[in-house]
Specification:
With 234 residues, the protein is an alpha/beta fold. It is built from 7 helices and 7 strands, in the order H-H-E-H-E-E-H-E-H-E-H-H-E-E.
């Protein structure tokens, strides 16, 4: 056990509702979520199951957090509580996803642990990523299903979330493009970083200005000014 990881500590001592997690996830969660602890944040988790993770998030983020869950199983509706609400619906239904965002407002942390099909994962990202707070974190897990045929996956198969995310790594770097068909978009302007782990991708949001390079110090070989790269939006 990682002694200083409060999520893993909670999991190891859990005698409440069932939690099912890959053990290497806890380090990733804490690395990206720690800055939100104790604050009045909005947390949205897809995939409620038996409700154990909702209890874990409450313990971790604290009493000021508003925690929402989403599941297709109507039995999960009763797993809500004080400052915790569960929505019941189809994760691939984009109207349903938009209705959640309309009701709860900007999302600080989104944990996508739902049905794990490619359509569900991509729909959730496309509908909710830009409905998050400017410095929010979108974490999507169990991405090994991108390699499993029964979920719509396959190694380098077009349309999986892994392949979709590979395209977003290009978009993250679009400031440097010289091609007309590859331009800066809202994702480029609002995403500071993408972190790839075994079965998890984390998107960390933040306003991004056109990058520029600078020089300091003395020339070692002559005084040619050379070219300094700058990228300004047209």
């Amino acid at each position: 056990m990682t002694v200083d990881n409060p999520l893993e500590k909670y999991f190891r001592s859990n005698d409440k509702r069932l939690i099912h997690k890959w053990m290497h996830f806890f380090e990733i969660y804490h690395r990206h979520f720690a800055r939100f602890r104790g604050k009045p944040v909005t947390i949205l988790e897809f995939g409620v199951s038996h409700g154990g993770s909702l209890q874990m998030w409450r313990d971790y983020f604290g009493r000021k957090a508003m925690i929402y869950g989403v599941d297709i199983d109507p039995r999960c509706a009763k797993l809500g509580g004080r400052r915790t609400k569960v929505f019941i619906g189809d994760q691939e239904d984009r109207d349903f996803l938009r209705s959640i965002a309309d009701e709860i407002g900007p999302i600080d942390v989104l944990i996508e642990d739902g049905g794990h099909t490619m359509g569900q994962q991509i729909a959730t990202f496309e509908e909710l990523y830009q409905r998050m707070t400017p410095d929010g974190v979108f974490l999507i897990e169990d991405l090994h299903t991108s390699y499993w045929e029964r979920y719509g996956g396959g190694y380098r198969r077009p349309g999986t979330f892994i392949e979709y995310a590979k395209g977003l790594t290009d978009q993250l770097n679009a400031w440097h493009s010289h091609e007309e068909g590859f331009v800066v978009d809202e994702f480029t302007r609002t995403t500071k970083s993408m972190h790839f782990y075994d079965s998890i991708i984390v998107f960390e949001r933040g306003p991004v200005s056109p990058p520029h390079a600078e020089r300091t110090g003395r020339w070692s070989f002559g005084k040619n000014k050379g070219t300094i790269a700058t990228y300004d939006e047209e």
